[in-house]
Amino acid sequence: MRVxxxxxxxxxxxxGIVEGDIGRPLTLIAVGVVRTxxxxxxxxxxxxxxxxxxxxxxxxxxxxxxxxxxxxxxxVSTIMGTAQxxxxxxxxxxxxxxxxxxxxxSEVKAAVSGNGRADKAQVGAMVARLLxxxxxxxxxxxADALALAITHIWRGGAQNRIEMAxxxxxxxxxx
Length: 175
Hints:
Blueprint: E1 2-7, E2 12-19, E3 27-35, H1 42-60, E4 64-68, H2 76-95, E5 100-103, H3 105-113, H4 120-130, H5 140-173
Parallel strand pairs: 1-4, 4-5
Antiparallel strand pairs: 1-2, 2-3
């Protein structure tokens, strides 16, 4: 399974493509960040993010997209920008018929590090270790995007198999 992880943000939107399956080694395909400048009006910034996501979807052709679920923070302007970027990611994936999964920050931290309260340094170190990298991807948004993709491969892949088994069993009963 090839997953595009997206750590949404208005200034930096982390993107990471990981390929793998449960019980098999994970492979880093690509990692990067779409950056926008605060000097631009928000509609132009959103357009740049959307274009960046579209390019990654076109170039890397993922099987699924994993996006960080927006959660409440104290700064409403940060929440709005993150939510807007998150919406763009979901629309771009839906336009291509790709499944989209939302994972909370604590779910990602727990999946990657074993601790739902891990800090960014711990998550980054585990991402580097799991992908057999010599250094932690920078900036943290890039490492977080890879962590989202890893989480989806490990958790989303298992969930997809459960749903397929249930559907198969239901189809067998209806015959």
